[in-house]
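Researcher: I'd like a candidate sequence for this fold, 48 residues long. If you have to choose between options at a position, lean toward the conservative one.
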C-alpha cells in the first residue's frame, strides 16, 4: 500500500469541454452514447 498512489493519468479535466468548443467552432457536432455494462462511445461529425 502506498498512500495517495493512483494509476490514473493526471489531467486538468477540461479535455471534453475544449473538444466540444473546437468541434462546434468548425460547424460540427460532438455527442456520446452510453450502453450499460459496455461503455461509452464518443462521436465527432465535421462538415467537409
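Model: Candidate sequence:
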Amino acid at each position: 500500500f502506498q498512500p495517495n498512489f493512483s494509476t490514473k493519468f493526471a489531467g486538468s479535466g477540461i479535455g471534453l469541454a475544449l473538444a466540444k468548443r473546437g468541434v462546434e467552432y468548425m460547424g460540427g457536432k460532438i455527442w456520446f452514447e452510453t450502453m450499460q455494462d459496455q461503455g461509452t462511445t464518443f462521436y465527432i461529425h465535421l462538415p467537409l
